[in-house]
């Protein structure tokens, strides 16, 4: 057999020596032929066997310059536990794995995450990722989240079909400060009424946030005045500010962007056979994500350790906004119009039945308000509305 045909020459020295011992244990060829096949001398072959008989498999590898008992060597039982944990959680990195193991077995001599990463790499459990080009973060003053329920983030993960061909659109809702996954539901109709039903359930269980951040697509936003959709109008009536990211910048809702990659890897690769089984996978993921999975941004503790429900309970009756002195109030008709100076002016069908406030800016323009939001301008000379930057920028209380 020529050397070019020897397959083990492309593996590590430790793996080559393991193959040598396994072939020696089989006893199918003479010792001389075995050494010749591995391109080593008989002296080296006897040395490998002696190491194996003295230290078992731990004696293999390049030990010529290393002490027999290295003080920093990771115990084999610890290595096997790390590898087992990775196989149980294939999407977790070494930092998360080590933190998770330390929480469960604090007395064990767990290595540093970098060492655990090397161990996983040698075990063939590290998948190389290609670098991604990312756009620079937008300097828009989005709301900050210092405490639970300061800001919730909502979005749909890309739709897919289950094994029986049914379309599923996963809806996720996350508390930005604690990373707690409040909702992870697969919808077959990703429309406003279905989203409202699920959010109402979340509001009853967790209370109300101060801000909800979404993208600019339906059912969270519209192309109408102020970008308000019926769902966003409902949020405002509950005392919640609807905040929207800049179009084409999903990284502004980065907590969900990262979550969706993990959700896809653990529940949708491949999809489940039916929507019911897919929802059970989503629900199991949500429990694991909240209560078991360490989060690096939280100091490697699960989100459930940081989240607590809001003190603002979901009200038994949802009231429309009220306006103070100096504001002229008009109620939007079912066709989205208001009466102004005897003329009809179109605002938005999302606001039908709702009171809007108008406050003078100068002798020609009036600020159009809905609750705490400035949603546009009314040109009293031309009797028409002007869209303000709130169409694409996060709306702020006034």
CATH topology (level 3) name of the largest domain: Nucleotidyltransferase, domain 5
**Rough shape?**
elongated
- The count of β-strands is 13
Largest sheet: 6 strands, mixed
Encode the helix/strand succession as letters. HHHHHHEEEEHEHEHHEEEEEEE
Question: How many helix segments?
Answer: 10
Helix content: 25-40%
The percent range for strand residues is: 15-25%
Per CATH, the superfamily of the largest domain is: Ribonuclease H-like superfamily/Ribonuclease H
pLDDT < 50 stretches: 1-9, 64-71, 131-141, 390-398
Going by helix content, strand content and strand pairing, the class is: alpha+beta
The domain count comes to 4
3D structure, described in words:
With 398 residues, this protein is of the alpha+beta class. The protein folds into 4 domains: 3-59; 76-122; 151-305, 2-Layer Sandwich (Nucleotidyltransferase, domain 5); 328-391, no CATH class. Helix content is 31%, strand content 17%. It has 10 helices and 13 strands. The protein has helices spanning 13-26, 31-37, 42-55, 76-88, 94-104, 113-122, 192-206, 230-237, 254-267, 275-291, and strands spanning 151-156, 160-161, 167-175, 181-187, 211-214, 241-244, 328-331, 337-340, 343-346, 355-360, 365-370, 373-379, 384-386. The strands form 3 sheets. Strands 1, 2, 3, 4, 5 and 6 form a 6-stranded mixed beta sheet that branches. It has a 5-stranded antiparallel beta sheet with strand order 7-10-11-12-13, with no helix packed on it. α5 crosses α6. It is elongated. The N and C termini lie far apart (83 Å).
């Amino acid at each position: 057999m020529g050397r070019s045909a020897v397959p083990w020459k492309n593996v590590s020295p430790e793996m080559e020596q393991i193959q040598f011992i396994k072939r020696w244990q089989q006893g199918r060829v003479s010792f001389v032929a075995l050494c010749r096949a591995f391109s080593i001398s008989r002296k080296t072959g006897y040395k490998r066997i002696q190491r194996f008989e003295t230290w078992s498999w731990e004696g293999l590898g390049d030990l010529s310059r290393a002490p027999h008992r290295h003080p920093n060597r990771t115990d084999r039982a610890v290595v096997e536990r790390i590898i087992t944990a990775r196989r149980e959680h294939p999407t977790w990195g070494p930092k998360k794995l080590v933190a998770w193991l330390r929480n469960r077995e604090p007395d064990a001599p767990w290595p540093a995450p970098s060492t655990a990463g090397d161990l996983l790499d040698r075990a063939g459990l590290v998948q190389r990722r290609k670098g991604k080009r990312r756009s620079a973060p937008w300097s828009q003053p989005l709301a900050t989240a210092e405490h639970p329920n300061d800001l919730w983030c909502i979005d749909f993960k890309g739709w897919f079909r289950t094994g029986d061909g049914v379309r599923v659109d996963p809806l996720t809702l996350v508390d930005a400060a604690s990373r707690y996954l409040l909702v992870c539901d697969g919808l077959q109709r990703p429309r406003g009424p279905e989203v409202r039903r699920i959010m109402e359930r979340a509001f009853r269980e967790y209370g109300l946030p101060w801000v909800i951040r979404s993208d600019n697509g339906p059912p969270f936003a519209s192309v109408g005045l102020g970008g308000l959709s019926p769902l966003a109008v409902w949020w405002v009536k509950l005392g919640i500010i609807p905040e929207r990211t800049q179009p084409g910048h999903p990284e502004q809702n980065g907590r969900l962007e990262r979550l969706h990659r993990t959700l896809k890897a653990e529940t949708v690769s491949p999809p489940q056979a039916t929507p019911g089984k897919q929802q059970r996978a989503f629900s199991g993921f949500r429990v694991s994500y909240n209560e078991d999975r360490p989060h690096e941004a939280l100091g490697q503790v699960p989100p459930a350790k940081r989240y607590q429900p809001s003190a603002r309970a979901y009200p038994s009756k949802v009231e429309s906004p009220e306006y103070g002195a100096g504001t002229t109030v008009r109620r939007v008709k079912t066709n989205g119009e208001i009466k102004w100076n005897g003329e009809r002016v179109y605002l938005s069908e999302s606001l039908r039945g709702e009171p809007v406030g108008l406050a003078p800016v100068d002798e020609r323009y009036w600020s159009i308000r809905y609750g705490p939001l400035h949603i546009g301008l009314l040109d009293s000379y031309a009797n028409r509305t002007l869209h303000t930057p709130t169409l694409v920028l996060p709306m702020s209380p006034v």
